[in-house]
Design a protein that fits this description.
The protein is of the alpha+beta class and 364 residues long. It has two domains: 1-46 and 339-364, no CATH class; 63-337, 3-Layer(aba) Sandwich (Beta-lactamase). The chain is 35% helix and 20% strand. The chain contains eleven helices and 16 strands. The chain has helices spanning 2-27, 33-42, 87-100, 123-127, 140-144, 149-157, 173-187, 191-200, 253-264, 271-277, 342-354; strands at 48-54, 57-64, 66-68, 73-74, 81-82, 209-210, 224-227, 230-233, 249-251, 282-283, 291-292, 297-301, 304-313, 316-323, 328-334, 336-337. Strand 11 (291-292) and strand 12 form a beta hairpin. Helix 1 runs parallel beside helix 11 (342-354). The longest helix has 26 residues, at 2-27. Residues 25-31 and 340-364 have low confidence and may be disordered.
């Protein structure tokens, strides 16, 4: 996990560039796709796809680097990438859909749907990472020994809570795995089937699905790790069923744009349900502006209200940012663990954006 933490710090650099670019777009119409593209291309190690859009208007939608370096197959707008923890956005929306159908309530105890679960944990606790359930990485050997989701859920029921539910925040993939199981239990469909029926198919998101099924996914990028100036194929995911609801989805920048526009226009869930997901349910200690909603972080960037989420899976990273009032969406999907330093990117950003040296090449 240490290499993912180090990588995430580096990946923030590219994300920060795009945040600043979006702000510049808001405040200065001179910013266009060529300016954004020049930044990304100067970031030599980047391999993936990037979308910057305002409403239905696409400012930039482009692939960079290769989806498969062994065969020199380039990334493009339709390349599919695992989106890792950005899956949690979809899981939260699935729960809200079921609440709208009066099939569950976010303040219901989990024990109502999974008998034997600690009675003090509610769906709200799972959605906000305040359940006290330990992250399943802490029980990894036991989890990997489980043959299916039911065995995993039974194992989770026996784990000791790390704190009283609702008393504190601690990020836990386990909670969203349990939520995915609840979606399946209540709806009578598998988690993937529920998302397909209620989100993917109606929105024609044909590039989106689950990697936990084991099926071959056409046009999906391979993940890579850079080390000592060499590129290595990322290792296979152990027991992918553990990713269900918390990291199992793949998608493309085009599909993610479709999803974001539908979500914030009230097409998928009602505006009232959306407002509930965007409430600052739990304040973050890292910043007075930052809070966790349902499946999202809520924050302020450059004086603008945003929601954002990040994902990291070996060989892959993802970032989704939406400026709420300006209706600007940024999606970054990458399949190469090789990034320039955050500080270097920020220096190049200042030189290009604020000094408006469009032809400037950053020293990467």
């Amino acid at each position: 996990m240490s290499h993912l933490i180090k990588l995430s710090v580096k990946f923030i650099g590219l994300c920060t560039i795009l945040f600043y670019l979006s702000y510049q777009f808001i405040s200065c119409t001179a910013l266009d796709s060529q300016q954004i593209d020049a930044y990304i291309q100067s970031y030599k190690d980047f391999s993936g796809a990037v979308l910057v859009a305002q409403g239905d208007k696409t400012i930039l939608k482009k692939g960079y680097g290769c989806a498969h370096y062994e065969f020199n197959i380039p990334n493009d707008n339709a390349t599919r990438f695992p989106i890792a923890s950005n899956t949690k956005i979809f899981t939260a929306i699935a729960i809200m859909l079921l609440q709208e159908k009066q099939m569950l309530g976010v303040h219901d105890p989990v024990d109502k749907y999974i008998p034997g679960f600690p009675k003090t944990i509610t769906l709200h606790h799972l959605l906000t990472h305040t359940s006290g359930l330990p992250n399943y990485y802490k029980h990894w050997n036991a989890i990997c020994a489980c043959k299916d989701l039911h065995e995993i859920i039974n194992a989770v029921k026996s784990w000791e809570l790390e704190f009283t539910p609702g008393s504190q925040y601690c990020y836990s993939n386990t909670g969203y795995l349990v939520l995915a199981h609840i979606v399946a239990t209540v709806s009578g469909l598998t988690f993937e089937q529920f998302l397909s029926v209620h989100i993917f198919e109606p929105l024609k998101m044909y590039d989106t699905g689950s990697i936990s099924t084991g099926r071959i996914v056409l046009h999906k990028a391979s993940g890579y790790i850079a080390k000592d100036a060499l590129l290595y194929t990322a290792p296979a995911i152990m027991n992918p069923i553990t990713l269900l609801g918390n990291g199992d989805l793949y998608s493309s920048i085009s599909d993610m744009h479709i999803f974001m526009q539908a979500l914030f226009s009230g097409t998928i869930i009602s505006k009232n349900s959306l407002a509930i997901t965007l409430l600052p349910h739990v304040k973050m200690e890292s910043s007075s502006d930052r809070a966790h909603g349902y499946g999202w972080f809520i924050d302020t960037q450059h004086g603008k209200r945003i929601v954002d989420y990040s994902g990291a899976l070996v060989g892959f990273l993802s970032k989704v940012v939406h400026f709420i009032d300006e209706n600007i969406t940024i999606v970054i999907l990458t399949n190469r663990e090789a990034m320039a330093e955050f500080s270097t990117l920020c220096d190049g950003l200042v030189a290009t954006c604020f000094l408006r040296k469009v032809g400037h090449k950053s020293p990467i």
